[in-house]
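Request: Have a read of the protein record below and say how the chain folds.
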Amino acid sequence: MEKFVINGGRALDGDVAISGAKNAAVAIIPAVVLCDEPCRIENIPNISDVTLIGRILQEMGAEVKRINKSTLYIDPKGIETTSATSDLVRGMRASYYLLGALLGRSHSARVCLPGGCNFGARPIDLHLKGFAAMGARHELVNGAIIDVHSDYRLKGNHIYLDFASVGATINIMLAAVKAEGQTIIENAAKEPHIVDLANFLNSMGAQIRGAGTDTIKIRGVDFLHGVSYSIIPDQIEAGTYMCAAAATRGRVLVKNVTPKHLESITAKLREIGCEIKEFDEAVLVDATKRPLTRCNVKTMPHPGFPTDCQPQFAVLLTTVEGTSIINESVWDNRYQYVSELTLMGAHISVEGRLAIIEGGSRLSAAPVKASDLRAGAAMIIAGLCADGTTEVSSIQYIERGYEDIVEKLTNLGADIRKVYYEDHSGENSLRA
């Protein structure tokens, strides 16, 4: 087993290059299933979720080769199955994009209910509603496998989403790309990785308009050709390092980003007193100039403040003066990290979707765990701020979405390392 060991109290300083977007990669890689020729995907983040989805495609018959650390070659022509039911599929949430991709390719899909982070119910009823509107039926097999199928080619239709679900928007897009006629998705999600997926599909010959707005129109096509495509930078990874810079009262240049994607985060950092400078492909966060103060945050679908940066920003708010309130409007159970922060001396009370943070806490080191991907990133930031040595366990969640996080933080002056340990008779024993 592995954990991160962090000696806190050091302000981050320097520059960090952001990797490709996890949320774009885990949608674009399954989308290659729709293609009739090989594809080359660049700026892929070197994270466990990408490795996992690549292995799933290999199990299905695709040829998947890693050209270098950030480039994948995928040839889907060998895929003859419409099933993805191995244990690997259960290991990641985004494996449900195989439903839309296989349905679009072969008007049939049989996929295990997925796993991933556990911070609230994430039903796929809107996905299935969209598939049904295009003529597909579904059933639940043995309580663990979704079987979606149509006797004929899917037909485009007008689909209204009850809420702007990112997953449903992506899955319906995938299913509609080769459907007969036009599909219109209303109240669609607008996140940058949805736009990136649409750009990728369009580069292969799809006809998608309106991605990034609340109405997406997809005209079905018969053939998609192979392409080379570079994925956008990861806005959440960027936001995490921006929060870490502010929380440690450091000065960090966050490179290889799209500043427009970060506007909701930079607005809040400016509000609490950080100096922010934006460049063409970089953002400078400087928290060394003046004391930071409280603010309130409400998570919202894009372009609002992202729920995936909420735990990291909460850690930052424990270190500033005043009382801040976070309103989590996206997920029901995203405050699991609060009990861990409380162990480190934070003063946070949760009332339903609200977290009330009494700022000015001096965090102290404690053994904590990552309950999910972004909560794990928050624990790392807390460890960077805390007095003493913090140990963060369950880091497999963190490695699902952060490439080379130890190396990147070390280059910014942090004292962090990965430690392997064994469990002997219920006690953790460290080894080299």
